[in-house]
Amino acid sequence: MLEKGYSNAGIQEILNRADVPKGSFYYYFDSKQEFALAIVNHFDEAYTAKVLKCLREQSRQFSPLQRLRAFCQCNKNSLEASQCRNGCLIGNLSQEMADQSEILRRRLEEIMGHWRDLFAACIEEGQQIGEIKNNYRPDEIAELFLSGWEGAVMRAKSTKTLEPIDVFMRVMFEQVLKAQPPQSFDAVAPQTVSQQV
Amino acid sequence: MLEKGYSNAGIQEILNRADVPKGSFYYYFDSKQEFALAIVNHFDEAYTAKVLKCLREQSRQFSPLQRLRAFCQCNKNSLEASQCRNGCLIGNLSQEMADQSEILRRRLEEIMGHWRDLFAACIEEGQQIGEIKNNYRPDEIAELFLSGWEGAVMRAKSTKTLEPIDVFMRVMFEQVLKAQPPQSFDAVAPQTVSQQV
């Protein structure tokens, strides 16, 4: 389903690959939608653990910005390893199914909303210690971080290059997230300022 | 196909809705992929005209930043009118088909690449007149603008709200694109600087 999408992944094809008889499938799942929900939940469990590992577990060792960057780098490595194929299951299914199944849309949105909250908590922490700019609310920056990331992954799939990911990371971290260190008065000549801002 | 995606839009269903016999379909198209390419080309023609209208035609009346904003506003209005359904055909099919059909992927990437070039030309113009920051190359900012936009549209479909679009527009224009006017030396106290950057 990650590879082919919801509609294009036939139940029979999946059963053949898994070498499972059809009766067993319908013993466990009422419909393809039920099956997709189970896949999504399974993916969510594994992936959210990965997000948590990047954003929370390493909080003693790394700063909020470093942890957000670790999230990007870790996913960039996966994309590179798969030659920019597949992308993000939750993003793919959201794009494909948001208007086809309200049940799937709600569950997918719940999962993405949870990721956004995890980003927001990390961003808020960064704002509190002055590492991340505080001109927007944490949940706003988190929404942009999430949607920008998903868009960059889609473009990476589409161009089959990592360039969209690299541009996202560069501009997002340098321009949107990172607070500038306070400067001494001497360093602030008007020309310098207009270059920085 | 915009509504349901490639795999989920059955040829028979399309023929029924259009009240066209199957023979006619195969007289014009060898396969569903051929048909999808024709749809994509048709969409491209209409949509690129819309992009050009926002970004180029109005260049005497409006500045580059205003024209980029007009592009967003015009598409935001369409999303609002459709209650955040459907989104962008090229984005949807890229997400769904990039790993399924190399022929479709290439064509979709060509179309998006063209949009990116149109954004880049507008951004370069803005950099030349000092309206847009020049700390990144126009094609880099254009890639981020495109992928960020596509991601925000996907999130709008998924959340069924325009919030992701609003956040994208606010942060993209205020933080990434808009150059700050040069300031007089008097106005630049250290506190002011650290708030702005």
N-to-C SSE string of chain A, H for helix and E for strand:
HHHHHHHHH
SS elements, strand count of chain A: 0
Our Rg estimate of chain A from Cα atoms comes to 20 Å
Using the 3D structure, state the CATH architecture of the domain at 50-182 in chain A.
Orthogonal Bundle
Q: β content of chain A, as a range? A: under 5%
| Multimerization status | homodimer
The mean pLDDT of chain A is: 90
- Class of the domain at 50-182 in chain A, according to the CATH hierarchy? Mainly Alpha
Global morphology of chain A: elongated
Count of separate DSSP helical elements of chain A: 9
Question: Explain this structure to me?
Answer:
2 copies of one chain form a homodimer. With 197 residues, chain A is mostly helical. In chain A, 70% of the residues lie in helices and 0% in strands. Chain A has 9 helices and no strands. Chain A has a domain at 50-182: Tetracycline Repressor, domain 2, CATH 1.10.357. In chain A, α7 packs antiparallel against α8. Chains A and B meet through α5, α6, α7, α8 and α9 of A and α5, α6, α7, α8 and α9 of B.
Write the layout of secondary structure elements.
The structure is a homodimer of 197-residue chains.
Chain A: H1 11-18, H2 22-28, H3 32-55, H4 64-81, H5 89-97, H6 102-128, H7 138-159, H8 163-177, H9 190-196
Helix pairs in contact in A: 3-4, 3-6, 4-6, 4-8, 5-6, 6-7, 7-8
Give me some keywords for this one:
Tetracycline Repressor, domain 2, 9 helices, 197 residues, disordered C terminus, mainly alpha, homodimer
